[in-house]
């Protein structure tokens, strides 16, 4: 990945970031969010779901939704992006697969006027991420995908991944440190779950997001 072309994301005057669940935006683009906030860019985060289904059978979904919203607020503060606009669409977690058109309709007005839209990659092999990615592809605003779940399953030269299209956004040390601290705000996802279940985000997976760069896939439209 270090051989991929470098993208100067800090040059964007405005950006809207789509997240299928709270933490997606920080894992995939937390460094970019911090860079843009530091540059004074206009930032808008659109939370498609509240992540209430992350612990099925382990508690009250509404309580998890509140917890994850608070974790996201703390993470944005840590990134220096507490001033970012946050819109919660409140669509059902783990049930977005058939809702790409509905999501796109909801997003059209919310993304108008922004220089770029950062969205979960439509090939992420996670149904909710892919639905949001497909919805983003329908927007007029230029779209750049960020992978999340891909780091679970992809291997070097994996043919399912558009590596030739990948670009790299280097993160200065201070920004990388802020991102690591922001990820740690998502305690509900990092701690073991009840009844012996492991964390939603195990350490080996999180390691992919604590590097000194982030990976994006610019969308190529016909």
Brief synopsis:
The chain is globular.
What key phrases describe this protein's structure?
Rossmann fold; 222 residues; 36% helix; 8 helices
Structure characterization notes:
The chain is an alpha/beta fold and 222 residues long. It has one domain (9-218): Rossmann fold (3-Layer(aba) Sandwich), CATH 3.40.50. Helix content is 36%, strand content 18%. It is globular, with a radius of gyration of 16 Å. The mean pLDDT is 94.
Counting structural domains, the number is 1
Q: What would CATH call the architecture?
A: 3-Layer(aba) Sandwich
Helix content: 25-40%
Number of strands: 7
Order of helices and strands: EHEHEHEHEHEHHHE
The first-level CATH class name: Alpha Beta
Measured distance between first and last alpha carbons: 26 Å
Beta strand %:
15-25%
CATH topology: Rossmann fold
CATH homologous superfamily identity:
LmbE-like
Unreliable spans: none
- Count of helical stretches: 8
Strand order of the largest sheet: 3-2-1-4-5-7-6
Mean pLDDT across every amino acid position: 94
């Amino acid at each position: 990945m270090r051989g991929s072309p470098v993208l100067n994301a800090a040059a964007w005057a405005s950006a809207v970031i789509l997240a299928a669940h709270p933490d997606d935006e920080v894992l995939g683009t937390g460094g970019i969010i911090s860079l843009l906030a530091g540059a004074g860019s206009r930032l808008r985060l659109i939370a498609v779901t509240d992540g209430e289904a992350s612990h099925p059978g382990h508690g009250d979904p509404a309580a998890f939704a509140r917890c994850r919203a608070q974790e996201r607020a703390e993470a944005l503060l840590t990134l220096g992006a507490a001033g970012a606009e946050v819109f919660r669409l409140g669509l059902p977690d783990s049930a977005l697969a058939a809702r790409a058109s509905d999501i796109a309709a909801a997003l059209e007005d919310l993304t108008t006027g922004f220089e770029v839209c950062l969205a979960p990659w439509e090939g992420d092999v996670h149904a909710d991420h892919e639905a949001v990615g497909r919805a983003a592809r329908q927007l007029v605003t230029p779209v750049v995908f960020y992978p999340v779940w891909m780091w679970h399953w992809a291997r070097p030269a994996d043919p399912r991944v558009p590596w030739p299209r990948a670009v790299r956004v280097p993160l200065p040390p201070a920004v990388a440190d802020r991102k690591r601290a922001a990820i740690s705000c998502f305690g509900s996802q990092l701690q073991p779950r009840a009844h012996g279940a492991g964390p939603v985000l195990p350490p080996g997976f999180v390691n992919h997001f604590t590097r000194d760069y982030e990976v994006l896939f610019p969308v190529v439209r016909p």
